[in-house]
Amino acid sequence: MSDDTLSVLALVCTLTPSPSQSSSQLLADQLLAAFPDGTRTESVRVVDHDVRPGVEADMGDGDAWPGIREKILAADVLVVSTPTWVGQHSSVCQRVFERLDAELSYTDDQGRPHLFGKVAIVGVVGNEDGAHHISAIAFQCLNDVGYTIPAQGVSYWNGEAMHGTDYLDLDETPEGTASTTRTAASNAAHLAHLLKGAPYPANGAS
């Protein structure tokens, strides 16, 4: 494995446990597939794991987050994929953001938050509006804990309001979504490579 090989982890925040199909999983898989050849990719469907409520790295008593956290810390790029419910990101996604809050307490040997230098992008699906609202919240949460967001770092699909069609029910992916998926993955890979070669300065030094 070369030093410039990227690793990407997708946290899929569907409310639907495996092995049932999920639109959020489908979009996450498409985002992972859009990264350059040779990228190491993995996805975790968070609802399949007993992730406890809280804002600590380990909430004890069988908490599954520490295992997921190891994967997060090992990844150069994080993909967060969420459905839209009542115009909001899922409760599973909110729990991910709350658990990531613990990372503010950890720094590297130069005093930088240890998620500095890592990149994050977002995927949103739903048969109602909300993708811009959700991605704005997700970007702020992820940036707060240290992730860098690339240009156009979101891919999404919204179906017609008041209808029951899901993303996974479509015969083919609309070109608009396919195009934004390719752009988000490409920009994330580009930015992650840049940050690996030129990390942020320590303690705000220029």
Can you tag this structure with a few keywords?
globular, Rossmann fold, 17% strand, 206 residues, 6-stranded mixed β-sheet, single chain, 33% helix, alpha/beta, 5 helices, FMN_Rdtase-like_dom, Flavoprotein-like_sf
How would you sum up this structure, described in words?
This protein has 206 residues and is of the alpha/beta class. The chain has a single domain, classed as Rossmann fold (3-Layer(aba) Sandwich). Helix 4 links the parallel strand 5 and strand 6. The longest helix is centred in the C-terminal third of the chain and has 23 residues. The protein is globular and about 50 Å long. The mean pLDDT is 94.
| Helical coverage, percent range | 25-40%
The tally of structural domains comes to 1
- Give the structural class: alpha/beta
Mean pLDDT across the residues is: 94
| The named CATH superfamily | Flavodoxin domain
Low-confidence stretches: none
Shape: globular
What CATH calls the topology is: Rossmann fold
How many separate helices?
5
Largest sheet: 6 strands, mixed
Radius of gyration (Å): 17 Å
Return the CATH architecture: 3-Layer(aba) Sandwich
Span of the ends, CA to CA: 32 Å
Strand content: 15-25%
Q: How many DSSP E strands? A: 6
CATH class wording: Alpha Beta
Organism: Williamsia serinedens
Domain NADPH-dependent FMN reductase-like: 9-147
Protein name: Multimeric flavodoxin WrbA
